[in-house]
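Posting for a labmate who doesn't have an account.
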Amino acid sequence: MTIATEQTVVELDEHLDISRVRQLHAELAALLAAGRPVRFSAARLLRADTAVLQLFAAFVRQAQAHGLAINWDSPTEALLRSARLLGLSEAMALSSGPAH
């Protein structure tokens, strides 16, 4: 994870599966506590399990409730497709399509 001046940038790995959910949950909780906008860099993400996408959806909901902006930088087609199939695109703030 790289911290920028105005926002926190989170570089996502190629594969995010259920084995990472506990660690990812802790990292996302710390981001909420920091109270800064978050930008997920998702250009490398090839596969994410349902549990991970549900965690992102919950994080986005909580962040928005706290007035924090969440952005996705270069979400892969795999991420967009998975979120769409699970009905999580809007909850993850991915509904606007790929950002570059």
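Reply:
Got it, the structure tokens are right above this. The longest helix spans residues 50-65.
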